[in-house]
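Researcher: Quick test of sequence recovery. Tokens follow.
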């Protein structure tokens, strides 16, 4: 059976859980506690290459790291990743944009807020927001008049960009500024198989 190493609050792991659910694939979860430093334990470091979740372990024990790589691997041959090379490139362009421009600028202030570490870090948070807001503005403009990110169909581009963008208010972002993003978030949540961030067990 597939095995997913994740953590409860990790948006990157959430992307993978959403897709696994949408594909109806059974899997075992190994949920690490990041606050306890479990990603730094030698066995996990060895398995995960970068000491981060998510990690997908296949039936043959091979592992795939990086949420975008896992999404692309699982989605191949399914409607979540169209076969046409140009459309696939468009999907990948959103995966790369999310990692380069959105993910850290949302995830780091979010984790500080969630762990009660934001006080005294106002200047650093402002710096992350100074990077994150322009990226959110670009996403907002793209979504005006569009239903989905690529070719007017739901793909892993939507799953990948959705996760942290939907959590941005936890990182102190004012999402009232982005009506098209908010409508798109609601559409993603309405997709068959979509799952909440915090799963029942673990
Ligand atoms: N680019 C990576 C980022 C993964 C990442 O940053 N994972 C975080 C949780 S979301 C993590 O495991 N951090 C290590 C730690 O906090 O110990 C991906 O997309 O998978």
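Model:
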């Amino acid at each position: 059976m597939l095995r997913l190493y994740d953590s409860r609050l990790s948006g990157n792991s959430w992307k993978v859980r959403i897709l696994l659910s949408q594909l109806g694939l059974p899997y075992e979860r190994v949920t690490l506690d990041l606050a306890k430093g479990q990603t730094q334990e030698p066995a996990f470091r060895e398995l995960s290459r970068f000491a981060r979740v998510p990690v997908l372990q296949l039936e043959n024990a091979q592992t795939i790291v990086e949420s975008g790589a896992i999404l692309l691997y699982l989605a191949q041959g399914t409607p979540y990743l169209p076969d046409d090379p140009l459309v696939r490139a468009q999907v990948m362009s959103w995966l790369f944009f999310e990692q380069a421009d959105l993910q850290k600028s949302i995830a780091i202030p979010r984790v500080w807020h969630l762990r009660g570490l934001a006080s005294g870090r106002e200047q650093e948070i402002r710096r992350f927001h100074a990077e994150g807001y322009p990226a959110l503005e670009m996403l907002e403009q793209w979504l005006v008049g569009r239903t989905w990110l690529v070719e007017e169909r739901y793909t892993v581009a939507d799953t990948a960009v959705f996760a942290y963008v939907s959590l941005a208010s936890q990182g102190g972002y004012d999402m009232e500024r982005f009506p098209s993003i908010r409508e798109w978030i609601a559409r993603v949540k309405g997709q068959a198989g979509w799952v909440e961030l915090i799963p029942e067990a673990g």
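The first helix runs from residue 11 to 23.
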